[in-house]
Amino acid sequence: GAGVSQTPSNKVTEKGKYVELRCDPISGHTALYWYRQSLGQGPEFLIYFQGTGAADDSGLPNDRFFAVRPEGSVSTLKIQRTERGDSAVYLCASSSNPGIRNEAFFGQGTRLTVV
Amino acid sequence: QKEVEQNSGPLSVPEGAIASLNCTYSDRGSQSFFWYRQYSGKSPELIMFIYSNGDKEDGRFTAQLNKASQYVSLLIRDSQPSDSATYLCAVKPPGAGSYQLTFGKGTKLSVIP
């Protein structure tokens, strides 16, 4: 596709449940990022992939959060035992190279609501 | 603690005026600076990036960077109602392993017809 695609666009889940959020980056982009944006805040970095490996996962808030990118393209963000505080818009972005001058392009996001 | 500070606004300007959006950052070694526009309920959209001190112009947009003052700004000339959005300043910190962007909270701009 022409842009970063995220599914689902909206997800409502009950507290304690497990969720998976999917990101399909721009074709050919090797770098992929996950961010989380709470209401009234800027996006907050979670994890960065270069190819299949997680090069920087320093933003993951705790061990309930995990992300994979097994074939170096599509990525899945997994959240176990969801809590109400996990409610936010989860944004995925990709870029063509990981250098300091890369420009990251964002998908439309998945709005996660934990009830 | 790496911080990016923006005035949350709202900043209101009349149509046709110049809108000036400001951002300061705490990490002196930061190398790359980005401005994203975010419409309500939508994802951030990259509109400008700047790496060198001085001005960079693209159409109605001008980004200004002053590394000595740790200050980056975005000017929007001939503001239009369609420019009404939240503008996010983002900074890429130094270091070979640092690819994450640190975002400010954003400034909400309202252009009044």
Task: Please characterize this protein's 3D structure.
The complex is a heterodimer of chains A (115) and B (113). Chain A is built from no helices and 11 strands. Chain A is an all-beta fold. By secondary structure, chain B is an all-beta fold. In chain B, 0% of the residues lie in helices and 53% in strands. Chain B has no helices and 11 strands. In chain B, the strands form 2 sheets. In chain B, strands 2, 4, 5, 9, 10 and 11 form a 6-stranded mixed sheet that branches. In chain B, strands 1-3-8-7-6 form a 5-stranded antiparallel sheet, with no helix packed on it. Chain B starts with a strand and ends with a strand. The chains are: A mainly beta (115), B mainly beta (113). Chain A binds chain B through residues 31, 33, 35, 40-45, 48, 50, 55-56, 58-59, 91, 98, 100-109, and chain B through 4, 8, 31-32, 34, 36, 42-46, 49, 51, 88, 90, 92, 97-106.
Order of helices and strands of chain B: EEEEEEEEEEE
Alpha-beta content class of chain B: mainly beta
- Percent helix of chain A, as a range, is under 10%
Shape of chain A: globular
Distance between the termini of chain B: 40 Å
Q: What structural class is derived from the secondary structure elements of chain A? A: mainly beta
Percent of residues in helices of chain B comes to under 10%
Low-confidence stretches of chain B: none
The outline of chain B comes out as globular
Radius of gyration of chain B: 14 Å
Q: How many distinct beta strands of chain A?
A: 11
Strand count of chain B: 11
Low-confidence stretches of chain A: none
Largest sheet of chain B: 6 strands, mixed
